[in-house]
Write a structure and sequence with these properties.
homotetramer; about 300 residues; alpha/beta; Alpha-Beta Plaits; Rossmann fold; 2 domains; seven-stranded mixed β-sheet; four-stranded antiparallel β-sheet; 13 strands; globular
Chain lengths: ~300, ~300, ~300, ~300
């Protein structure tokens, strides 16, 4: 008998599901998984009292199920149908590598961090391309063997439509699972927010909802806060108001000038983006309304 | 039709279970809960790859089930039997108030903290009694309307047997769900560790396994660590080596002398003990071997 | 020869000073302290590039100086005069016990915490009185041997003037070093803010500037933040906008309802208030404009 | 008159000094600095009650002093002599770029992190060379335009002498201010510890003194701790026992296997090493016996 290889043994089918709550959902899903022989490796549930919805994420050892992904999806569709028409679900195979595209500007710390994680085999996705509205980060990107596209943005915001259109095309050719604004510093137009809804992820350099918009470290300095933070969130049409995936903070004091906050803040931005992106790519983030359920 | 009162609506049956892992456990349990009409409010699962065991905690709205606790236990026993003879489980009704007994010495910060939480309705248990090997904390205990028993301990450790025997009797009369060593500063004899196994909870003033034993802040100061911590753990016969429930740390620096560490450490001790005790009382802590699963 | 007792040895003269920055300030002050034989135990400096001001706090072993506090103040006044007319400074003797008055409402966790710290000898001040706009916390206050004054506040905010006048009198009779709004839940009128400027300290249950005003945990829940916090700040006429002394946060997730945030937030409120108050009482907080310098 | 350029304005002379404590040290030093016109930008002091030593670090705007570094050192030597023969001090010019050499093995996360910081202009030193006992990290190092030297280490520890001798020569040619063991995984022989005393900096992947030696994440997993950490320390002949510069921790839980701890631990290792190294390079770390004073 063939023992699965280590990496084959690590392959998972990951189900993420949200549906209006009622009795018996867990029984319905777990009975189905037991019927197909699924060995559950991770399972998380959340019954949201506020919205009346139920959310679950289940990771099943792929080798324990004698079905391909398509067949499993087909069979699970009947379970989902039983749970009602509002049910939202995805079913992914971790053996199929995901793709991400990064949008950058001049600040390279988040890019460097993600490139380093990719090189170390830590990122659960391939970086398909990097797109910059400045050419500064082209060299480091290419050194890692990744395509870099420079798109020039006009000074006048009113004239940036064609530039965004070009970005959209460069991104969409990869059909990525995540479009990461890694300190991109450009506000996406509403149609792009819609187009990439649930896939466009931003890192904002403040602990939202404090210090929305431009120059948050300057705002933090002026207010005299004792902690600064960063927020990883889905991009929506309303600036810095999308569903929050992850946040963290770091202590500062009176001796820290704006440039010190900028420097220390970078470490938090890197961490928060890396964590949020990882959870997104592992189907650990379920969005409902303005909020997220994160099965971290 | 009677609507359950708010507090009746908050009443839960809480199942905590561990068993050797195999396919179908979740289906078996959730199907049972669905059959008795159980509305699951919280559910957590953990399949432990290292030990090959499976753990779960489920909180069900009591009002959704048309059975009393005893009948529910009886019915669930057949499910547990199906899961095999090694299965360990408890089923509690949050409507039945738990009891705890505190063992203290001279240092009052943990006692004050727990009394304050009890007064604020935050503690999910009643403090049945406080026992001290010094009389210092008698007054504050009595002011809160709680019995205090002073048990004198001889200087010579070899002669403390009768004192511990007296403590055992004073504790056992309450048949408590937790015996909390709230900075008790006495090492329990092995037979008491056995007798209260899984119920005796200690707060140690270091980040274990660093600085086992006496005067951990002095040890931390001598080593020059940059963080100090506290550890809440179950008491076992091996000193400071029982299963860890919760830990946390706080930053110190070169300017902090031992007395500063003692002062700052108190805040961490209070927090860590309060969190660990709460989780224990809410059946969120499952012990397996030297380690815990904490569904916090 | 008499050796000073331990507590006499711990007595300090504490100088806190702010002045427009220029070369030689440290030399001027430290030369003065050396001349009077002062053994410096703690010294901290901050040159604020943004405001162009210089701040320092120095703690000198009182027994090393052959002068009483009044004489020392008189002599230092000539140094301060040399530093220019804008110079602000205080000089305190830690051997003279400070006094604080607490304002409370119904929520008792901050009061319990401060009473526990006072009982444990940890608070560097005496609690002279507690004033409540509800009688709920009278009993626990009196159990600790502290006077409690109940002041009834009318429903209509427009009619609360006399109540605030009564509070002012009850406070001012103690001439306290700090008036602590320990979850007082009433907005001080501007004249009281002025009257207690630099002494009135509030604990706000959010990470300001997020969630100003009422029901911050509800606001945090609605926004879906991943950390909640608390802020200790001086009270000014603009609501929740005074100089921040200390802040901290705690992690929450999607499973935490508002009441869970309220419960977990209490622990942060207690810690942040205790730290901020301690620093204030130890003359570690220097206010300049809307911001603080904290020599913690 | 020429205004100094922005970067000239940022140039500092940094004095770091330790000496047995006595009255008048601050006055002596600050009077000297005032006499040479020094504008103090940062100043920190610590009187260590335990050892009876006094430590200070002062950063002075270089442009405010009409002396070159050599002349300033010569003049300050007379001040230091007055403070007694045990006095230890350094005086650096931040306008003179420091050099570091990195020792690596196969794990690249700390190297990637430091290369990214260097590329972003964040590191206060140049990476002069990277030396690896495996060739794995050669390519990424060279992509950043930095020399990489591969030194083969024999399996048998007893035969590694020549390899260490080769490493010593490759390092010493750069006369570096820091020799960073960025997950080097080789224990330095005692003579190299002595040779690089105060300059060899290690990152250990545990919260020392817990889990000294090999495979600390496995040890942490086996013990069931609830936080894992990393420690940046000076290398001494006793394994993992040198003076600690910085430590930090991250929360883990029962669901984290060893490989999860390894992954999450990397983020803490990177941060702790980057912070510790930065402080070392900015002369913020003063070693005394087994401990450090860190003016961060």
């Amino acid at each position: 008998m063939n023992r699965p290889t280590a990496s084959e043994d690590d392959r998972r089918y990951v189900l993420a599901l949200g549906t209006p709550d009622r009795t018996g959902i867990v029984a319905r899903i777990s009975t189905f998984l037991a019927e197909v022989g699924g060995s559950i490796v991770e399972a998380a549930y959340h019954a949201d009292a506020d919205s009346g919805w139920f959310f679950t994420r289940q990771a099943v050892r792929a080798s324990s199920i004698g079905l391909g992904l398509d067949e499993l999806r087909e069979r699970f569709a009947t379970v989902a149908a039983d749970l009602g028409p509002e049910t939202e679900w995805t079913l992914h195979d971790t053996g199929v590598r995901k793709r991400i595209v990064l949008l950058v500007s001049k600040e390279g710390h988040c890019l460097h961090d993600l490139l380093g994680r990719a090189a170390g085999g830590e990122l659960p996705a391939d970086i398909a391309a990097v797109i910059g509205n400045h050419p500064d980060l082209e060299e480091v990107t290419r050194q890692h063997g990744i395509d870099f596209h420079y798109v020039s943005f006009p000074k006048d915001p009113a004239e940036r439509g064609p530039a965004f259109e070009q970005v959209r095309k460069l991104v969409d050719v990869h059909d990525p699972h995540a479009v990461v604004l890694a300190r991109f510093m450009q506000v996406l137009p509403p149609d792009l927010c819609d187009h990439w809804a649930g896939r466009a992820i931003n890192i904002h350099h403040s602990f939202l909802p404090s210090f929305v918009g431009a120059r948050p470290y300057h705002q933090a300095f002026a207010r005299g806060v004792k902690l600064i933070g960063a927020t990883c969130h889905y991009v929506t049409a309303e600036l810095d108001a999308g569903p929050i995936i992850e946040q963290d903070v770091i202590r500062v004091d009176h001796a820290d000038e704006v440039r010190d906050m900028v420097r220390q803040g970078r470490d938090i931005e890197k961490l928060v983006l890396a964590r949020g992106l990882r959870w997104h790519l592992e189907d650990r983030v379920l969005v409902h309304g303005r909020k997220t359920v994160v099965f971290s």
